[in-house]
Amino acid sequence: MQTPRRDLLKLAGGGIAASLMTTAAMRAADSPMAPGVHSIGSVYPVRRFGAVGDGATIDTTAVNKAIDAAAAAGGGVVHFSAGTYACYSIHLKSNVTLYLDQGATILAAPTPADGASGGYDAPEPDAPWHAYQDYGHSHWHNSLIWGEDIHDCGIAGPGRIWGKGLDRGWGSDGTVEPRGGGNKSIALKNCHNVFLKDFSILQGGWFGILVTGVDNLTIDNLTIDTNRDGMDIDCCRNVRVSNCTVNSPWDDAIVPKSSFALGYARATENVTISNCYVTGAYELGSLLDGTLRKFSVGTKVSRTGRIKLGTESNGGFKNIAISNCIFEGCHGLALETVDGALLEDIAITNIAMRDIVSAPIFLRFGARMRGPANVPIGRLRRVSISNIVASNVDPQQCSILSGIPGHAIEDVKISDVFIQHRGGGTREQAALRPPEMDNGYPEPNMFGVTPAQGFYLRHVENIDMSHIEIASLAPDARPGFTLDNVKDADFLRIKVQRAEGVPFFSLKDVENFTCSLSRGVPDTTLAQVTGKTF
Q1: Contacts of 479 by beta carbon, 8 Å cutoff, 6+ apart
Q2: What's the CA gap between 416 and 500, in Å, rounded?
Q3: Mean pLDDT in consecutive groups of 10 residues from the start of the chain, 534 residues
Q4: By the 8 A CB rule, do 234 and 260 touch?
Q5: 31 Cβ contact partners less than 8 Å away, ≥ 6 residues apart
Q6: Cα separation of 466 and 382, whole Å?
Q7: What is the rounded CA–CA span in Å between residue 258 and residue 260?
Q8: What's the CA gap between 461 and 465, in Å, rounded?
Q9: Rounded Cα gap, residues 342 and 268, in angstroms
């Protein structure tokens, strides 16, 4: 029985689970058919092409045959019924959707023994520009599912992708997998009109999802419980990420990047990230199985798990909005441009954070300049951050906005922020002046313990901060705000919980400073000051 075409057309409109196949077609999917007949209308069940789905038989050939048949017919849905399909590299094609039923798992098969035939596709040959980003960013074919130069395609359904046999990119030499090995669950390059919807990824390898040069991309309702990055959105335009949950204790969760992996600088722009939960708090797999096992005290794990723009930043970031997201047991929000590009027109609002292990807010404009020679240093400007609440923050690094000498972060507005940290800072720490680290890898810990408990601002021009409150669970001897080489700074309605004798502000080399309507400090206007605390 053929599925009505009107039902199949609903697939692109969001009615995937309910309208993929009729009940009769579902029952027929694995039943015998006439010789040479493999599809049910525009649905191509992989078992019809020889897939076994027992978790041991390698089903790569059957799956790729089903995809080829759908593509040759002008498009269709490649259907995975319940079962575990052990595979090496699956080749996604234009006008094809992979649909994973409830109970269906695509399993990354283990790398064959050295010298054996088969395995994942070989990585592309190295190009001169591959030195400008990590190995994993420079290769796509050595993946469980990959596509290049394709369009109007996707992966959907309530099933799972399990990257069990993938390498994390931290092998013996730190760069390449064994012969026949793979390191990404999904990798797409130079594609457009792509959707990834409703499935889960367990143990995704170096990247659960790596999309590079992909435009008109929708990522919705994914659950990713993984051992490195959740999703990297690199050199992409017109992207919507929504309703996703990512547990990535050892690396970042949702990461817009703009590397040089395409051989030229291309901005990541017109991106929204909304209604997502990111964390680094849970043991691998315990988010997906519902046990939510937190790491025991003393376990060595970075708990990275955050939303970050960067580190790769050759092409820059433009027109990006992040809203209604939750961070738990992980690093804070990070915006970074360090490779000679613009980071501009960023709006961030409604973020709730708990148990944050480093700076809740981190803006870094640096000069690592990992890219072609003679590229000028970029700019970080026009950033709005509002409605942020963070509790139980590690006190070692406060929120940090830091440019470098001669290159300031510009035009920043931060409002309606409440940060509660654990306190304990000392007067000795308040006297610290962190190193510049112009060309260092950008992380909050690059500066060591910060000399402020709320915000550390250095090399910043035109910053407006209003309705900010800093609270500590234990006494802290550091000022609420430390400003170093800052110009045009306006503070309105600021509150800092501080012990007797601890200053509200510490100013060094500051021009055009105002503070008004802030409890515990008089309204103040300063045209220029080289050193002052109050």
Answers
A1: 430, 451, 452, 453, 496, 498, 502, 503, 504, 505, 506, 533
A2: 25
A3: 41 43 49 64 97 98 98 98 98 98 98 77 95 95 98 98 92 57 97 98 98 98 98 98 98 98 98 99 98 93 97 98 98 98 98 98 98 97 98 98 98 98 98 97 98 98 98 98 98 96 97 97 97 97
A4: no
A5: none
A6: 16
A7: 7
A8: 12
A9: 10
